[in-house]
Specification:
Blueprint (H helix, E strand, L loop, with lengths): L4 E2 L2 E11 L5 H4 L6 E4 L2 E4 L5 E11 L3 E2 L7 E8 L3 E8 L4 E10 L6 E9 L11 E7 L4 E6 L3 E6 L7 E7 L8 E6 L6 E5 L4 E8 L7 H10 L4 E9 L6 E6 L5 E6 L3 E6 L4 E7 L11 E6 L5 E6 L4 E5 L9 H5 L14 E2 L10 E2 L2 H31 L3 H13 L5 H18 L1 H23 L3 H6 L2 H21 L1 H9 L3 H5 L6 H24 L5 H4 L3 H32 L17 H25 L3 H9 L4 H29 L3 H6 L17 H8 L8 H36 L2
Helix pairs in contact: 4-15, 4-17, 5-15, 6-15, 7-9, 7-14, 12-14, 15-17, 16-17, 17-20, 19-20
Length: 747
């Protein structure tokens, strides 16, 4: 208004159904869906005996004074939510005002009260172009933009309007010589759509600046340039139009928007995916050239587009585009989502309102599926294969007849029971004893090897005379002994190695060296052992001079203990070097501990697939012809040498097939992953963090997804991906098994 006031409102539609008998006879003969305008309403032909009568119903709020009214308003923008509203106004005298409106509704009477409070914003900085093109409010009144014709844009931070400040001055035009022709905020008030005189279209939004890993001086320099540590980023550069973009309109239902140009061309675009959905020309009137489009708009249901030419002619085009988000690029490539500093793989299928972007990146789910499978296989494969070797080659038939059916019986445990026990019973226990679990994982292999070397110190007669059931019982006792020692000394381990608590170290406290030492020690021990046995042992005269079984056993025990010490020292040295070079395993490899995580998923899902891998592997080992065993033993090989050198190579194909079958079983597992993973769609390999898998995501979201929606179809597509993955793995496993059977049959 000329006195500096602003009046905002909303136009609603009032629909009434009237009998055809009360209408003009000519209207009854019109086709279904046709409309005519009568007086103050529009009549639409509908099925049945009633016609739709539609009236426009404007609702205007009381005028709001902006400033002292000494100067008229030249540009303004507003937003309104059920609880809050705002008006940004630029006056002719160059002053900028923001009015925050608090909205309260009386639930008893339905009366709505608006309480405005106006703030004069700091003076606009001096810019080369003094012609302001538009002013816009973003993030529901948290940000304000003043956009000039040459593209210069001033961004205000309005988190606290009484302390508002200029947060950034930048340019939205990348190509010299172009000017801003149209600018508007997208649905959700986060993304700024800019169309220029050369036909360029871009999407901009304010994103948080990443300060992780930066020094205090670097952060201070960033704050001097960007006081709120946010900056405008050009997230989406869309395909240009042949002439100046004269009109822009956004959808209120999704992330589609329309751009129209001076040649009458209209482009339907999707902001998040950056794709061009459709293009068409507004047909020119007879004998006239194409007119420039002055305004465009979506229908409320996105099923039509209205275009108003500068000649006053109005054109409506029907539109059928129900799934604009469903592109392969949006599902498999990194996308620059609102508020993100860079493109990322994100899955977030739903939100509370239509303002939010639909994030349907499937890579976090695929990664989570493979991550859970990897940790499950890492836990299950060594246990299952070594158990199969021990059962097939070393265990007495009597004990084997009990152990094998018992392990196979594990497969009958429902995965939902395992998930329930793991999530509600085991997860809280592990959370309070993480160090003990880590020590058990490291200590069990070392403990078994150490006990094996100690066993060799016993006289041959004692080892031979010991019943097999006693050996098996001693093995079980050894397992529980290692677990008990780890549980008892976990706090001492924390204090000595991590200087406090392991979970505190995971959260960033202390040096990175202990973590590197813990991670690199097993790798160093394996490398040293392989290198010694392959290159040094055959050349060492010491092994040729040692006489007696006891002396050799003692030498092997000393060698093992020395290798462990050397591996730890070597890992510590490498850890110091990596730490000094600025590398830290916290972040890429490990990180903060969450209660439901990949470690628990790996343990329990591994427990579920052990029977499958064990059974198939044991069958493959048992089918190796006994003639090969007898020949090997007859040539002087020990039982262990016979197993490693003869039995395993023959049974390799069957063992590999067993692993592939276990892999396929793990990929398709649902309930354990659903109940124990925390459903966190992230793409890190941190074993102490959660994950989200394809199968668990389908089970959770499919019952709530609207039928035939984009979300619904994405879930079916992810199920198809899961089917393809398991089909390929199982087909490969079956092919290898067939080859193994043919090979075994020819022996």
């Amino acid at each position: 208004m000329s006195d500096g006031r602003v009046r905002v409102g909303i136009v609603k539609t009032d629909v009434e159904y009237v009998p055809y008998e009360t209408l003009d006879v000519a209207f009854k003969s019109r086709p279904e869906g046709d409309s005519i305008v009568v007086a103050d309403a529009a009549l639409q032909r509908s099925p049945g005996t009633l016609a739709r009568k539609i009236r426009m119903k404007p609702e205007l709020a009381a005028p709001v004074a902006v400033g002292d009214g000494a100067s008229p308003i030249v540009l303004f923008d507003f937003f309104e939510t059920p609880q809050l509203g705002g008006v940004l106004a630029l006056r002719e005298d160059g002053k900028l005002y923001f009015t925050r409106i608090t909205i309260r509704k009386n639930e008893m009477t339905g009366e709505i009260r608006r309480r405005p409070k106006t703030f004069e914003l700091p003076a606009l900085p001096a810019v080369a172009d003094t012609r302001a093109k538009s002013v816009l409010l973003g993030l529901n009144g948290r940000l304000a933009y003043v956009i000039y014709t040459d593209g210069t844009t001033v961004r205000y931070n309005l988190d606290e309007p009484e302390k508002a400040f200029v947060a950034e001055t930048t340019s939205l035009i990348r190509q010299r010589g172009r000017t801003v022709v149209s600018a508007t905020m997208h649905n959700g008030n986060a993304t700024l759509i800019v169309g220029d005189s050369g036909g360029g279209v871009a999407g901009w939004f304010a994103a948080q600046i990443e300060i992780a890993g930066k020094t205090d001086a670097e952060v201070a320099a960033l704050k001097a340039k960007h006081p709120d540590l946010m900056q405008l980023v050009e997230a989406h550069e869309h395909k240009a139009q042949p002439s100046a973009v004269t009109a822009v309109a956004t959808s209120g239902l999704d992330r589609q928007f329309i751009t129209a140009d001076a040649q009458g061309q209209i482009y339907v675009r999707h902001m998040t995916s950056g794709t061009l959905q459709a293009t068409f020309n507004v047909p020119a009137a007879a004998g006239e050239n194409a007119a420039s489009i002055a305004a465009v708009a979506f229908s409320p249901k996105n099923d039509a587009i209205l275009a108003l030419e500068n000649t006053g002619r109005l054109t409506m085009v029907n539109l059928q585009n129900p799934h604009p988000e469903g592109t392969l690029a949006q599902m498999f490539l990194p996308i620059h989502y609102e508020g993100y500093a860079a493109p990322a793989h994100v899955y977030q299928s739903s939100a509370g309102t239509t303002d939010a972007e639909m994030k349907i990146g499937l890579w976090p789910l695929i990664f989570g599926t493979l991550k859970a499978t990897f940790y499950a296989m890492l836990f299950a494969v060594p246990i299952a294969i070594f158990a199969a070797i021990y059962t097939s080659e070393f265990m007495s038939p009597g004990i084997r007849g009990v152990v094998k059916p018992t392990i196979e019986l594990m497969a009958s445990l429902p995965s939902v029971v395992l998930g329930f026990i793991g999530a509600l019973v085991v997860a809280p226990i592990v959370e309070g004893n993480v160090s003990a679990v880590v020590l058990i994982c490291l200590g069990l292999p070392l403990g078994f090897v150490l006990i094996g070397y100690v066993w060799q110190l016993l006289p041959q007669r004692t080892r031979t005379a010991t019943p097999n059931w006693v050996k098996f019982a001693l093995m079980l006792v050894s397992i529980f002994a290692v677990m008990g020692v780890a549980w008892a000394f976990q706090h001492i381990f924390d204090r000595i190695v991590f200087g406090g608590e392991f979970k505190g170290w995971l959260n960033g406290r202390g040096s990175a060296t202990p973590g590197w030492t813990l991670l690199l020690s097993p790798i160093a021990l394996v490398a040293i052992s392989i290198g010694f046995n392959v290159y040094l042992r055959p050349r060492m005269a010491l092994y040729r001079t040692v006489k007696g079984e006891l002396a050799m056993a003692m030498l092997e025990l000393i060698r093992f203990l020395a290798f462990v010490l050397i591996a730890v020292l070597l890992a510590a040295g490498l850890g110091l070097l990596l730490t000094a070079s600025g590398f830290d395993p916290r972040g890429p490899l490990v990180g903060p501990y969450v209660q439901r995580n990949s470690l628990l998923v790996g343990l329990f899902m591994g427990f579920a697939i052990i029977p499958i891998i064990y059974t198939v592997s044991e069958d493959a080992l048992s089918r190796v012809p006994n003639a090969l065993r007898s020949a090997s033993l007859g040539l002087g090989a020990t039982r262990w040498q016979m197993t490693i050198g003869v039995v395993l190579p023959v049974a390799t194909s069957g063992i590999f097939a067993a692993c592939m079958i276990g892999f396929g079983r793990a990929v398709g597992e649902t309930m354990i992953v659903l109940m124990m993973s925390g459903r966190t769609p992230v793409t890190d390999i941190n074993i102490f963090n959660g994950l989200s898998a394809l199968s668990a995501n389908i089970a959770t979201e499919l019952p709530e997804a609207p039928v035939n929606s984009t979300h619904y179809r994405v879930l079916f597509f992810s199920a198809f991906l899961l089917f393809i993955l398991t089909f390929v793995v199982n087909t490969a496993a079956e092919t290898i098994r067939v080859r193994f059977r043919k090979r075994a049959a020819n022996m």
